[in-house]
Amino acid sequence: MKPLTIESILHRLRAEPGPAGARAARVLAEPETYRFQAMLDVRTPCLRETSGFRVGAEYFYPASTVKVLIAAAALAMLDRLEPPSAPVGDAPATTARFAFRDDSGSFAPERSFNEELALCLIVSDNEASNRLLELVGLDGMRTYLDQIGLYQARVVHHLSSTRTPDEQRRSRAVRLTIGSRTHELPGRVAAPVSPPLESDTPPRIDVGIAHSREGETIPGPMSFRAKNLVPLDSLHAFLRALGSPDSGDAKPRVLPPTRDSVASSGSNLSLGSGCGPRLDLSAPHRALLVELLSSTPEAWSRSRGFRPEVADGEQYSDHRFRPIATGLARATFSHGPDDPWIVASKIGTAYGFVTDVAYAIHRPSGTTLTLSMTMESNPSGMVGAGGYDEAFALAFFSDVAQAVARDVLKEAEARLRAAAVGLRSSPDPR
Predict the structure, then answer these.
(1) What's the pLDDT at 246?
(2) pLDDT computed for residue 200 by the predictor
(3) Cα separation of 256 and 194, whole Å?
(4) Which residues pair with 37 in a beta bridge?
(5) 28-33, long-range: CB within 8 Å, 24+ apart, which pairs?
(6) pTM beyond cutoff 0.85
(7) Burial group, residue 103, by CB count within 10 angstroms (0-12, 13-18, 19+)
(8) In this structure, are strands 382-383 and 210-213 parallel, antiparallel, or unpaired?
């Protein structure tokens, strides 16, 4: 049987002729330069395999992938304030609204929770994400990550924000309307956030050969010690637990009891444990989060009556926002409908880093995949000044996803046939 580890699939891809093989050869020739890491989890009726490539080898900036954690924390907050009345049906977030108190003392403008989530997760709007993070608060965010067992994850600042660190610690008073009930929460100030100790930071947390600060070029690397930090295995486990509740309801085997006792291994989830974080989400809110991460602006407009628009004015494209999903859809196989995949995913791009995490179900076969990748694609080594080669990373991620889908589906079918032959050849127990 063909090995189905992510490393074996990568090496088979590298040997292929054409642009996809050339891109894989380029990355695998110097994965340290690209800071490339990948994880793959495969579940079929005849196969269960989890593997990684250079997971935790060095720091990467998670960028907008943290938005899925922020959205989950906000939904968990709603669950605490107003638990859903039924395990199925519409999630409270679909009708909830909130407004921060402005300088005049009024609660305005009122915002739809549902629309903020769509902006945050479907088109990766930073302002919507920052509003949700202010709603939860930095202390609330830390508490949520601890509760679900992601002890090494740090979400400690807003995204693309001009607020000072002290301003980001402050959450304005907010009025939340959930159904027929209204909750008023006072303003809050989070505890100061200190950079992690040297022993708790992943390797190579200083990035680049020079960086830009307020338009000035500063020689030497940029330190990311005060930035957000979410290890790839944490993002991977979160998506897997979100898509497959059975994987997230088991108690993690290797998580330490407290954040402070985390070992400095760069990883806090067992690669092969099959366990993951408890998400602390009601079933309706878990389903809503999966729906959001599986949707496009057009699909969300049809189902929910609101079309989220990309903030930078560019057109939405699956290749830009869902490269793993694009690659899975490109895969060739001998059976199934035209659109056989359901893919819940979140991408993040910033400072030359590109990260995509995805949970996918192949409907015809019942195969499930969790695939996560991150890399830095910054040929100049200058951080914070643009000029990154994100197009290369997006194309490479789609190539890998296509190779994963092709190999997994072929191998799953082969193992299923072998199992069937074995059953037919087994002696009659009578």
Answers:
(1) 63
(2) 78
(3) 21
(4) 374
(5) 32/57, 32/58
(6) yes
(7) exposed
(8) parallel
Kind and range of the H or E run holding 40: strand 37-44
Environment class of residue 116 by beta-carbon count within 10 Å: exposed (0-12), middle (13-18) or buried (19+)? buried
What are the tokens at 215?
A: 């338009």
Lookup result for tokens 């990373």: 393
**pLDDT digits over 74-110, tens only?**
999 999 998 877 665 678 888 999 999 999 999 999 9
Pair 150, 277: CB distance under 8 Å:
yes
**Cα(54)–Cα(374) distance, integer angstroms:** 10
Tell me phi and psi for residue 122, to 5 degrees: -85, -45
Of the candidates 364, 369, 404, 350, the residue with the CA atom closest to the CA atom of residue 60: 350
Q: pLDDT-based confidence at 332, cuts 50/70/90? A: low
Q: Which two tokens stand for residue 117?
A: 């989530």
Our CA angle for 292, 405, 281, nearest 5°, is: 30
Which among 227, 222, 135 has a CA at the least distance from the CA of 177? 135
CA dist., res. 420 & res. 234, Å (int): 37
- Biggest CA-to-CA distance, the chain: 84
Residue with tokens 């990766």: 124
